Inverse folding.
């Protein structure tokens, strides 16, 4: 039985990364991509002018990327429907994910 020579490990890892992870946003899923695209100020909330941009994009292409968010099928995105665009794992009110509660001295507080 003939065995083919494998490429050097570095090349293999680079190829695997290029195929499996074409971009961080691709790995995050469609909801995260849309959220990242419209959260222009990157504060973790679609607010202010961003809401207007989402509504304008939906009005221009109702069967486009926002079609699944118009839950009541009224042809408009209300505030609750826009809020549903937040990707899984995101916290309320633009809070950033953290590894725990931080004390003023920078150490993580223990959970009781």
């Amino acid at each position: 039985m003939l065995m083919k020579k494998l490429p050097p490990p570095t090349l293999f890892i680079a190829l695997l990364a290029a195929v499996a992870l074409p971009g961080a946003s691709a790995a995050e899923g469609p909801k995260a991509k849309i959220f990242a695209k419209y959260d222009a100020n990157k504060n973790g909330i679609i607010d202010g002018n961003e809401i207007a941009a989402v509504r304008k994009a939906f009005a221009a292409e109702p069967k486009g990327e926002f079609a699944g968010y118009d839950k009541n099928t009224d042809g408009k995105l209300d505030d609750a429907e826009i809020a549903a665009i937040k990707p899984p794992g995101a916290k309320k009110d633009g809070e950033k994910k953290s590894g725990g509660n931080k004390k003023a001295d920078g150490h993580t507080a223990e959970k009781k």
Remarks:
- Residues 14-27, 94-105 have pLDDT under 50 and may be disordered.
- The helical segments are 9-20, 24-28, 30-38, 49-60, 79-83.
- The chain is about 40% helix and 0% strand.
